[in-house]
Every structure is written in structure tokens, then in C-alpha cells.
Design goal:
The protein is α/β, with parallel strands linked by helices. It has eight helices and eleven strands. Bound molecules: fe (ii) ion (2 copies).
Length: about 270
């Protein structure tokens, strides 16, 4: 049995030293064989927090980045820093670089942080201005239309990555776990324990249709394989079955209270 521990939206820079210590204690006590971190790890001190988790867990740590992980910086710089860190710390793995990772004989893991792309709902009419749009250096100078272009291209990067990488995993394994940050479907964009309506102004900023479209197109072609998507970003938990072989779990989270989301026991 392989124990895989999933963490979502832990936002460690917003937690007290005491809360982080209790969280790391709980992580060690869960006896993981591998740890999955679904982004929004820390706005500040990202690499230090990743190191802290790896050193305490002492097992492979696989992660994707969320929007908050880029705050105060340029996207390319954050990615270069985590790439460098992973080269230095062999048990740390940034999933877009790691590709398809076997977790057991039957189950593989892959992941990409993706990006909420404003394609569900009415982006231009939503009136919502996320902190992302002022805190991430690449987005700050852009007007609303330019920003939409940029976030769509960030989401399309994830969609292309999955188009390239996912088929080989689906062909070889009975089960595939896809770790991501933005929910890929409106139905997985749980917020305040509800699925948002199409006209919810937050929906365009909380979901990644580019990835959802890839999954809906691809999964019917691999009916023998089950795909579990693990996402977060909305901080409200839920589960939805999108197709017979495609389920999506959205992680719940509270700022300042990092916690284990779920422990999977894989045969
Ligand atoms: Fe978050
Ligand atoms: Fe997020």
C-alpha cells in the first residue's frame, strides 16, 4: 500500500510558526510515501517553505504552483527559482518538469498549476479585480483586455502540456492522478460550498476551461483508465463526477490553518 498525502492551498506564509509546526507534525504522523502540493504554497519564502516540507517529510514531494506563489515577482523568475531548487534537492519535484511519475504499478501522477483563464462566465463584464492582477509583475502593467490575453496564454500552456503528456499515462496506467491548481470545470469551482452559476462574477477568475476542454476531449478515448483531478484555488471543497472515468476533487482551505487535505491509499 502506498500512502499519498494531498495538500491544497496551504499558504504557509500566512500561518504562525506554531501552526506550521503542528501542520508538519501532522504531515509526518500521516506516514506518507509521497506528498502532493497543489499550489498556493507561499507568497513569500516559497523555496524555504518547500525545503521545510521536504526536510520534515523525507519522502518525495511533488508540487505545482498556484497564482499566489508568483506574488511580488515575475512568473519566469519564480519558475527558474523552483527549477534550481529541485535540481539541488532531489526529493523535491516540480511536476511540469517531472512528467509522468509512477506512484504504484497501477497509478501514475502528473501535474501542472494551470491558470484561471476567464473562459467560463463573463470575464470582461465581471468587474472582479483579483490581487493577482496587481501583485504579479507580469500582469500589473496590463489593462483588462491585455490581461485576459495573458492569462489565456498561461492556461493554454497547461492545456498543451497535458495534450502532450497525458495520453502516455492514460495508455499505460489504470488510474492517473492529475494535480493542478485552478478547477478545470465550472462544476468543480466550488465556492462557499456551492457550484457558481454561469453569471457569477468570480467564476472566470477561479477556473481553467482550457484544461477542462482537454480532459473532456481526451477521457472518452481512454475508457479503461480512471482520472482523478486534484485542484484547489477556491478554498471550498467538493467532488464532481464529470464523466464515467473523470472525477474532480476540489480542496478546502483556510488561510493561516494549513492542513492535510486527504490521504490516499493506493494499491
Ligand atoms: Fe489559495
Ligand atoms: Fe489560488
Amino acid at each position: 500500500m502506498t500512502r499519498v498525502v494531498w495538500l491544497a492551498d496551504i499558504h504557509l506564509d500566512l500561518a504562525s510558526a506554531k501552526a506550521i509546526d503542528a501542520f508538519l507534525e501532522a504531515l509526518v504522523a500521516s506516514e506518507p510515501d509521497a506528498v502532493l502540493i497543489g499550489g498556493d504554497i507561499a507568497e513569500q519564502g516559497l523555496n524555504e517553505h518547500l525545503m521545510q516540507i521536504a526536510m520534515r517529510a523525507e519522502v518525495p514531494v511533488y508540487f505545482v504552483l498556484g497564482n499566489h506563489d508568483y506574488y511580488g515577482k515575475h512568473i519566469a523568475d519564480v519558475r527558474a527559482e523552483v527549477r534550481y531548487l529541485c535540481a539541488e534537492v532531489p526529493i523535491l519535484h516540480w511536476l511540469p518538469e517531472a512528467g509522468v511519475v509512477p506512484l504504484t504499478e497501477e497509478t501514475a501522477l502528473l501535474g501542472h498549476g494551470a491558470w484561471s483563464d476567464g473562459r467560463y462566465g463573463d470575464y470582461m463584464g465581471s468587474g472582479v479585480l483579483l490581487n493577482d492582477y496587481v501583485s504579479i509583475r507580469d500582469l500589473r502593467p496590463l489593462d483588462q483586455g491585455e490581461r485576459w490575453g495573458r492569462i489565456k496564454s498561461l492556461a493554454d500552456e497547461a492545456a498543451l502540456y497535458l495534450q502532450d503528456t497525458l495520453p502516455s499515462a492514460l495508455r499505460q496506467y489504470k488510474q492517473v492522478v492529475l494535480l493542478t491548481h485552478s478547477p478545470p470545470f465550472r462544476e468543480a469551482t466550488w465556492y462557499m460550498n456551492e457550484i457558481p452559476d454561469w453569471d457569477d462574477p468570480y467564476l472566470p477568475h477561479f477556473s481553467c476551461k482550457a484544461v477542462g476542454d482537454v480532459l473532456l476531449d481526451m477521457m472518452p478515448r481512454f475508457p479503461q483508465t480512471h482520472l482523478i483531478v486534484l485542484c484547489g484555488h477556491t478554498h471550498s471543497g467538493g467532488r464532481v463526477q464529470m464523466l464515467d472515468n473523470l472525477e474532480v476533487l476540489t480542496g478546502a482551505a483556510e488561510y493561516g490553518q494549513p492542513a492535510i487535505q486527504h490521504v490516499f491509499q493506493l494499491a
